[in-house]
Amino acid sequence: MLAVLKSVLGRSPVHLECVHCCRRQRLLCIRPRHQNGQSRSYSMPTGDIKSLRSIITPPVSKIRNIGIMAHIDAGKTTTTERMLYYSGYTRALGDVDDGDTVTDFMAQERERGITIQSAAVTFDWNGHRINLIDTPGHVDFTVEVERSLRVLDGAVAVFDASAGVEAQTLTVWRQADKHAVPRMCFLNKMDKTGASFTYSIESIKEKLKARPLLLQLPIGEGKSFQGLIDLVSMESLSWSSRSNEDDGRRFKRKPLSDLMDQDLLQSAKEARNALLEQVADLDDDFASLMLEEYSEDCNLIPVEKLQAAIRRITLTRSAVPVLCGSALKNKGVQPLLDAITLYLPSPDDCTHDFMSWYKDDLCALAFKVVHDRQRGPMVFVRIYSGMMKAQSAVYNVNKNCTERMSRLLLPFADQQVEISSLSPGNIALTVGLKQTATGDTIVSSKASAAAAARRAVRSEEKTKDRKSQDNLVLAGVEIPEPVFFCTIEPPSVAKQFDLENALRCLQLEDPSLKVRTDPDSGQLILCGMGELHIEIIHDRIRREYGLETYLGPLQIAYRETIVCGSRASDTLDRTMGDTRHQVTVELEVRPLSEDIPLIEYSANLPSSVNSYKEAIENGIHGCYLTGSENVRKANPGTDDEFGNHDGRRSPEQSLG
């Protein structure tokens, strides 16, 4: 059997590492060969059946599904690499500049030193299973962050301590708010010249409108950055100046009373008191504990009680814990991992209505599709309830079709471990679901979906929630409209079919990529989120599909919107024949708010205005499409709302 598997896999880009059989489980570990013929130095031996078994069946309360999000160059991938190294997943530290990181495995990512696709990795830390997704920071790949946050339970926002909140930080923070994802902040690059802990905290308050909960203070800033003060345990954590030699594995943890710097000690005591007061303000149970049992000396409160209160605050998103460090200098990453397991939610902490409708039946959401030229579409899914099993049929609620899943894999960036089943709360990679697309809901069978629908109807009757039945299809991933476009042509007419096939495969992976045909010229139009996005797609077609395509000039679909509201009125006074008509209309335009119609009418308008509503709305839409006359280029408007406050029609007057 082993010889047969080796002969089969020998003809593909992957090779067999090892096959282990036991009574309960059969595991196949697949590791891809890289272009230079070398494989990565993974610490977890693929033959370790015990560690693989622990991966398959972790307690749900010990699972953390988290994402790393930030502005570009804030240090997301470097932080992820340190997490993998300290957890024992890798034997050597990956470096973005050297192009040998685990999560940036695409050729374009290694050449450019940026993250293009979100990558999932799984590792252990202090008895917890962490499913981590490293997301891109470039605005062109915002959809990768969107679909990752859709299925994650928590997130870590990484900041450049010298820059604070940056442009893309605002975008990913809004995305996390939309999906109600609890998160914590990590002020990275504290060793960088110009790093400022105070400035970063103020930036979080002012720009993100968030309440930072300071759990650490830095010992020094810039080149003098040495370590941290843990305000929860009141200990100092220090790394040696030669932390790069031992990769930061060893650090000293001492009671704060041993701190020699009295000014720093006083600052730590003040920050600790502020932390206790803030936690008491946000958590009633902790406030009662302080008043009833520790009113004389709040510093005697057990660390476990304070940690539990911080966790409750984090889960309710009342505040965001803030930590600091320097991932590149190997300082502060281990305390960050501890905080992830202590404060971010497990799947048990995130409840959804649909889970009660499906009960123990399978319910999962497909959030990403990767096209493999040998294995076909590979679908990333988040399992919310029930067991997912390999070699089983599943029902796609969105497509109303049944498909057979041939293989079930655990993702480790570009490495996978084949398993036979996986429990709720995990992220899996499936093979064989050819009709499934990003945002589709996967259940065990059509009968299971019908049973869930009946339970939803009963729930609707009790709660009078008319939206219950719609929630049988899980909320998918919101895909933004592309803003850059250009023509794309194959090297010859004979390669037209190959180009169209390549674009279809890339669209399966990247839903923000759109392809359309110009009705006049018949040319293919490539639509993307930005210039870099188009460049990456062009390069992937050349590398992965062997097609030298030609791109036309890049064009931009401009949009304009208003910054603040404005009100204006106009009177039409016109004589038609022997009759004089006079109409006054007053309109207000405002930036669009949520859950408000695009055009609304004031409640005190006279009934005679109803006959003119169609004309009013046609005029508004016409103006909206052509744009403002006060800008050099008139472009379609977006995200505005109009209010009709007044409409008066004077009696018709005969001039005869």
Automatic annotation (TrEMBL):
GO terms for molecular function: GTP binding; GTPase activity. It comes from the Eukaryota. Residues 642-656 have a biased composition (Basic and acidic residues). GO terms for cellular component: mitochondrial matrix. InterPro entries: EF-G-like_DII, EFG_II, EFG_III, EFG_III/V, G_TR_CS, P-loop_NTPase, Ribosomal_Su5_D2-typ_SF, Small_GTP-bd. Residues 61-348 form the Tr-type G domain. It holds the Pfam family GTP_EFTU. CDD domains: EF-G, EFG_III, mtEFG2_II_like. The keyword GTP-binding applies. The keyword Nuclease does not apply. Residues 631-656 are annotated as: Disordered. This is Tr-type G domain-containing protein. It comes from Engystomops pustulosus.
